[in-house]
Specification:
Helix content: 40-55%
Number of helices: 9
Shape: globular
Structural class: alpha/beta
Radius of gyration: 17 Å
Strand content: 5-15%
Length: 193
């Protein structure tokens, strides 16, 4: 670990508690300070948003994590950005959340920013890195892009032991449809309605 990182402050965008748990503990050892940042206007429906936020709050309280909440359930704003560009929804969603993270990092005088989205095997890491470099340059905050291999599963296991909520899809209305529309038996049960 370089001394420039060990003396740096990192703002870590948190998509959910299971993705954050193990990675956060490692990052806290590598950086002078690590703050979490909750901003996820993409999550649908509202009850899903509340479940994920509650899990983060439970974890934050247990582990004494310093966090900034942008608790702004802005489904309408998210859908306005995505409408008629659904094939680009992940790019737009990543950009929305990572840009806000870079803005908060700059205002808070953080040296770096990152996201737990990088940990998930279900996300497009190359696209995330591209967007992080772009918004980092725009807002003069360095993106921290270290690949944290294996930590996603460890975080998942730790969050289960803590009894925290585990989501079943990425978060947006489109990923919810993809997850449940083709669930075994659902389509057959609804035939004829």
């Amino acid at each position: 670990m370089s001394s420039s990182i060990s003396s740096a402050r990192l703002l870590l965008h948190i998509c959910c508690a299971p993705c954050a748990i193990h990675a956060f503990s490692k990052l806290r050892r590598n950086f002078k300070e690590v703050f979490g940042f909750w901003y996820n206007p993409n999550i649908h429906p509202f009850l899903e948003y509340e479940r994920r936020l509650k899990a983060v709050k439970i974890w934050v309280e247990r582990e004494k994590i310093r966090i900034i909440y942008k608790d702004d359930y802005d489904l309408k704003g998210f859908l306005r950005q995505i409408a008629f560009r659904e094939e680009e929804r992940c790019r737009l969603c990543y950009h929305m959340r990572l840009e806000k993270t870079a803005i908060v990092a700059r205002k808070g005088k953080f040296d770096c920013f990152s996201s737990t989205l990088l940990l998930s095997p279900h996300q497009d890491k190359h696209l995330l890195e591209e967007i992080m470099r772009e918004v980092g340059k725009e807002y003069s905050v360095k993106p921290y892009l270290e690949q944290i291999e294996g930590r996603w599963q460890k975080g998942l296991n730790l969050s289960r032991k803590m009894g925290l909520y585990h989501q079943q899809y990425c978060g947006c209305i489109y990923s919810e449809e993809e997850r449940y529309k083709h669930s075994k038996g659902i389509s057959d049960k609804l035939k004829g309605f």
